[in-house]
Design goal:
Blueprint: E1 2-13, E2 22-31, E3 34-40, E4 48-54, E5 59-62, E6 64-66, H1 78-85, H2 90-95, H3 100-109, H4 112-128, E7 131-137, H5 144-160, E8 164-172, H6 183-200, E9 206-211, H7 218-230, E10 236-239, H8 247-253, E11 258-261, H9 267-276, E12 279-282, H10 284-289, H11 298-304, E13 308-310, H12 324-333, H13 339-345, H14 348-353, E14 370-373, H15 379-383, E15 390-394
Parallel strand pairs: 1-4, 1-5, 6-7, 7-8, 8-9, 9-10, 10-11, 11-12, 12-13
Antiparallel strand pairs: 1-2, 2-3, 5-14, 14-15
Helix pairs in contact: 4-5, 5-6, 6-7, 8-9, 12-13
Bound molecules: 3-[(4S)-2,5-dioxoimidazolidin-4-yl]propanoic acid (DI6) and fe (iii) ion.
């Protein structure tokens, strides 16, 4: 079989089927960026390869996928973090100009170049741990112009680095001060003006909203979803993070790719997600950073067969996290996910949460996005904290 590169002497966590899909003496072959064979050496065809790499027993997983980030934003909120540690209340921080509005101001003040430059070190941190696909949301501009600038900056990240960037329009993240007393008018502007513009420019791959007491109501979220459907865009939702507004069930009714956070998810929401095939994207970094104590209903999600993804939720307010390895560790320690669930959460199920059928497992026909690890067993990727055993990262066969 003609191919570009063969990796031999590898142990594979193919993530195909249920569990890890381990192959002890494994081989992967790539042609034109796609996997043409991934499996046991004993069953491999004879390859005519331009390059052969001996992996010396290292483990190969699919390239990691971060399916929920707010990687692009102006400034940071370290001073606010310090104030909180010194005992300041949320109101005091807000009065001192803190909170999500401070990030909105810093983002509005940033040029596209500034936004790209400040996001690149965060993207590089993810890439250094084997990430090959990263989702990036807007949602800190909250006006048409800045939201468009954020999404353009997102697209540009994908040209600055060898990584796939997928962009999500999150205009309904918070209410901007210009609309302080009129959330419905903001939603109308978003649906009738901003989303059509974003779609016409081809800047968004999906639409998201923050359905919450401090975000938007079910009715407002439904209007955003209806507008997304008119523009042919799939939807996702920040749901049931702080309270139960039944956002996950709404998302499921709209065929959402994922519902994210879910600490307050109930049985009806789980059942609806199971029927629609909506992925449960859990965000243990946010759970940890805000010292949340209510756990998402992991056992019930498992029992219902809802696929579980894990993501960093990288954002300046509630999850300043740029490590999928630490995210997996938190998924295991805080949420008691198994090793194979953690790995599936940042590969197979993360791909599904983004609507990608062409990645997330090591199988013939998939993109050749690989992470090659200096570990003796896959559990080490979940077990260590703050240690990066990445040996090599392959994106699109390179
Ligand atoms: N949920 C969150 O936890 C963040 N956004 C969201 O929808 C908070 C974002 C921030 O505080 O900057
Ligand atoms: Fe988020």
């Amino acid at each position: 079989m003609q191919c570009d590169t063969v990796w031999k002497g590898a142990r594979l966590a193919t993530m195909a089927g249920a569990g890890i899909g381990a192959v002890e003496d494994g081989v992967i072959a790539v042609k034109d960026g796609l996997i043409v064979y991934a499996g046991p050496a004993a069953e491999a065809p004879a390859f005519d390869a331009a390059r052969v790499v001996d992996c010396e027993g290292r483990w190969i997983t699919p390239g990691l996928i971060d399916c929920h980030t707010h990687l692009i934003h102006g400034g940071h909120r370290a001073a606010e973090f310090e104030m909180r540690l010194d005992g300041a209340s949320y109101e005091e921080i807000a009065r001192a100009g803190g909170g999500i509005v401070s990030t909105m101001r810093a983002t509005r003040a940033a040029s596209e170049d500034d936004l790209v430059a400040s996001a690149l070190p965060r993207l590089d941190a993810l890439i250094a741990e084997g990430a090959t696909t990263v989702e990036v949301k807007s949602g800190y501009g909250l006006d048409r112009e800045t939201e468009v600038r954020m999404l353009r900056a997102g697209r540009r990240l994908g040209t600055e680095r060898a990584v796939c960037i997928t962009t999500t329009y999150l205009g309904a993240h918070a209410l901007p001060p210009e609309y302080a007393d009129d959330a419905d008018a903001y939603i109308a502007m978003l649906c009738d003006e901003a989303l059509p513009e974003v779609t016409a420019l081809g800047l968004a791959d999906a639409v998201d909203a923050f359905c919450e007491g401090i975000g938007f109501t079910i009715e407002q979220t439904e209007r955003v979803f209806a507008a997304a459907a008119r523009h042919g865009l799939p939807v996702k939702l920040h749901a049931e993070q702080l309270s139960n507004l039944h956002g996950a069930a709404l998302a499921a009714r709209h065929g959402a790719l994922s519902a994210d956070h879910l600490e307050h998810l109930d049985d009806a929401g789980i059942a609806a997600m199971a029927v629609s095939g909506t992925v449960a994207t859990l965000l243990p970094g946010a759970y940890y950073f805000v010292r949340e104590t209510k756990l998402p209903p992991i056992d019930a999600l498992r029992a219902a067969g809802v696929p579980i993804a894990l993501a960093t939720d990288c954002n300046p307010g509630t999850s300043p996290l740029t490590s999928l390895l630490l995210t997996m560790n938190m998924g295991a320690t805080l949420f008691r996910l198994t090793v194979s669930e953690c790995l599936a959460g940042v590969t197979r199920n993360a791909a599904r949460a983004l609507g990608f059928a062409d990645r997330g497992t090591l199988e013939a026909g998939k993109r050749c996005d690989l992470a090659i690890w200096d570990v003796e067993r896959p559990a080490e990727l979940v077990y260590r904290m703050g240690f990066n055993p990445l040996h090599a990262r392959i994106w699109s066969g390179q």
